[in-house]
Amino acid sequence: MKSVTRKRIGKTVLMIFVIIASLVCIFPIYEMISTSLKYDVDAFSLPPKWIFTPTFDNYTSIFVSSNFGRYFINSVIVALSATFFSVFLGALAGYSIARFRYKGKKLIVILTLLMRMIPPVILVVPVFILWTKMGISDTRFGLVIVYVALNLPFNIWVLKTFIADIPYSLDESAIIDGCSDWTVFRKIILPLIAPGIAVASIFTFRISWNEYILSLVLTNRFTRTLPVAVSLYLTDAGTEWGKITAIATIIAIPAFIFTFTAAKQLITGMTAGAVKG
Amino acid sequence: MSSAKGLATRKSPYLFILPAFAILVGVLVLPVFSGIRLGFFEWALRDIGKDPEFVGLRNFMDIFRSENFHTSIRVTLIFTFSVVVLELFIGTVLALLLEKGVPGLRFFRTIFILPVMIAPVVVGVVWKFMYNPSYGKINYFLQVLGIEPVGWLSDPQMALISIIITDVWQWTPFVFLLILAGLQGVPQELNDASKVDGANYLQTLVHIKLPCLSNVIAVTAVLRLIDAFRGLVVMLIMTNGGPGVSTEILSLHLYKTAFTDQRLGKASAIAVVLLMIITLLSIFFITRSMKDEEL
């Protein structure tokens, strides 16, 4: 009897602890969203107004400012195209690594792994110079190609693992039927690695959508993306927290969507390479 | 791997890898090498149309003699060491506590993913708002508890601590998720066997769980270490390296040397130092994670 009570107390303490931990996790996000929905009077009032009349004023005023729409569209175009190309090229390369043996493969694999860790800030100066010389600085293309490259190592690695899990007998029977390697890739491999494609796409989209430093340096006022836009509001005299948190919330929307619809894929992606599944 | 899997004479493996290889070389490898080369040149941002001037090792002498560089190395070491230790400790304890299963673990796990997913810019913005001395919520909570207000980002003694807190908030959940995944990989027979042998929780932890986890913990630590060296956005947004240079970690120092001081050559010399650190850490990571990878 006694140990049952003790167990129950232990469970309760644990539960309270977990709830506190999740509150700490959630609070800054709550603070961002609630501030974006408040009138300035409510946003700055102390003690805080936990109950307030929500307003979409901040959102309407940023959407009305003509540039916001442009930055938003830039972000969407850049993130989607970077995701498409990086995942597609990653799948091709992953197929090559998982299914063939050839000279130089090991070198490529090691190169890929080394490149995975390259800090974007190291690329900023040389890429800025090279892109300026080639005339692709300040273009969305110039930014997309950097994001494609930055995400490739991870995508190759993840997709290679997924491809290696497909029984080789499937490829073999198709090859015996006279399929080319390309057909095998398209008709057999691609459909079977759909879960891997989901993981790779979510991570590439997230990184491209969130990235700040390269976008700051490689874009101008026509091509800049949302993270750069939000930082510009910050340096303006008299910080407008309502508008800033509204843009920040919009930037965070894909993160919310992924977290609540694709938690499993996210954990697969995070643990890839660190934990043997 | 069976020998049937392709022959060295076939073209298609090369064709499949070519596009990815070309992009990796063109966008990552070549710029990295051109950056290293630039470390030996003097080039101002406004002279970008002209040719750079070769100065040998002068940029490197410059940075090694520069007070700000030393400070930024010190700040970087304090920052990376603190966040990695704190995040690993808290993350591991959380994972061990929750491993047994709390009702709604899946829900809590989802909550814990959120901070990891949020853009660094957004994290910087939100925490800057919360740290605000006059209307930020953090000082308000302290005041409720009867604690004096703190100049989180304005006090040179506190600014780095504030940034460490923010990083711990964002990345502890990531560590937790990795360690939890690692714990779920510990063979159940081992746990059962140690129980049958009459081991208590602490003994099982020390002799079974932690040894099984050691590889995961090491890899997680290196991943976080590399990320801590790479990140600069949160500092750039919250403090821009200040007050003074008290939160100017190496990557931010590099960025500001290039785009505030406009010295591209000197910035590239800093990049070389950063690159060497990251490469050393990456080699450790690669040897660990390639351990049982078949090629």
Low-confidence stretches of chain A: none
Most strands sheet of chain A:
none
Number of DSSP E strands of chain B: 2
Radius of gyration of chain A: 24 Å
CATH superfamily of the largest domain in chain A: MetI-like
Q: What is the strand content of chain B?
A: under 5%
In oligomeric terms, what are we looking at?
A: heterodimer
Number of domains of chain B: 1
**Order of neighbouring strands in the sheet with most strands of chain B:** 1-2
CATH class of the largest domain in chain A: Mainly Alpha
Give the mean pLDDT of chain A. 90
SS-based structural class of chain A? Answer: mainly alpha
Helix content of chain A: over 70%
Along the chain, the helix and strand elements of chain A come as HHHHHHHHHHHHHH
Number of folding domains of chain A? 2
What distinguishing features does this structure have?
heterodimer; A: 277 residues; mainly alpha; MetI-like fold; 2 domains; 78% helix; globular; B: 295 residues; two-stranded antiparallel ribbon; 12 helices; 2 strands; disordered N terminus
